[in-house]
Design brief:
The protein is α+β, with helices and mostly antiparallel strands. The protein has helices spanning about 15, 20-30, 85-90, 115-120, 125-150, 155-165, 175-180, 185-200, 215-220; strands spanning about 1-5, 30-35, 40-45, 50-55, 60-65, 70-80, 80, 100, 105-110, 170, 200-205, 210. The strands form 3 sheets. It has a 5-stranded antiparallel β-sheet with strand order 1-2-9-4-7. It has a 4-stranded antiparallel β-sheet with strand order 3-8-5-6. Strands 10-12-11 form a 3-stranded antiparallel β-sheet.
């Protein structure tokens, strides 16, 4: 982790690039840059929250693991995004209640806690950015809870397969990976995928899945289950 005064990363955050008040200028002088390999932890469940987190490049996932080893992915933070859990912990003085891991090589910008809190108080534009990002993140988490609680597994799986960015019909994921994403058991995912394969919608390979009939999966999303 090393300090940097380069502002090139702001091109990913147009709203922050437009801020010109003294409080934000002080923040820019003390931001830190962290370059992570895929699989590296950004923070761990129970860690103290010391920095506001911005993802400039790559992707970071935030996940919760239960005492018996079950995992659910809460959300992904992609380039140009913020981490809602970090924001809540910074504002509330709490420790992290989940883990964050780099899915791909990632460039992360860190704003130290004291500077973050000062800027929230003194910079209306930065405060608006923080709360607007938090509002969107909470909405996404509510949608996740509704999906896990009420969504049918076939539709949730179809949505996952269709929503993988850059997949182009080829999803590099194991059944266990998908189970973590959907908050269910690997066996449930395997049964649903076998059903999809039987219908000719996908082909299953070792470690990856081929989408054969995208239209059928989209029709499944529109179906009343």
């Amino acid at each position: 982790m090393a300090g940097s005064r380069s502002d090139d990363w702001l091109k990913v955050y147009a709203a922050l690039e437009a801020i010109g008040d003294p409080a934000w200028s002080r923040v820019l002088r003390c931001v830190q840059h962290l370059h992570l390999p895929a699989g590296a932890h950004v923070f761990r469940d129970g860690d103290p929250c010391q920095y506001y987190l911005l993802v400039v490049e790559g992707s970071v996932l935030v996940r919760k693991t239960t005492p018996d080893g079950h995992e659910i992915v809460l959300y992904h933070v992609n380039a140009g995004g913020t981490c809602e859990l970090t924001t809540v912990c910074m504002l509330g003085g709490k420790r992290y209640a989940a883990d964050a891991v780099a899915v791909t090589p990632a460039h992360v910008v860190l704003i130290p806690k004291d500077e973050f809190q000062s800027a929230v108080k003194e910079s209306p534009a930065f405060r608006h950015f923080v709360y607007s990002s938090l509002d969107k993140g909470v909405g996404d988490l509510v949608s996740l809870v509704e999906t896990v609680a009420f969504g049918h597994i076939d539709q949730r799986l179809a949505r996952y397969l269709l929503g993988c960015p850059g997949a182009r019909g080829r999803i590099q994921a194991t059944h266990q990976d998908i189970a973590h994403e959907l908050g269910t058991a690997r066996e449930v995912v395997s049964r649903a995928l076998k059903h999809f394969e039987h219908n000719g919608w996908v082909r299953l390979h070792r470690g990856w899945i081929e989408v054969v009939d995208e239209m059928a999966l989209r029709a499944l999303l529109d179906r009343q289950v």
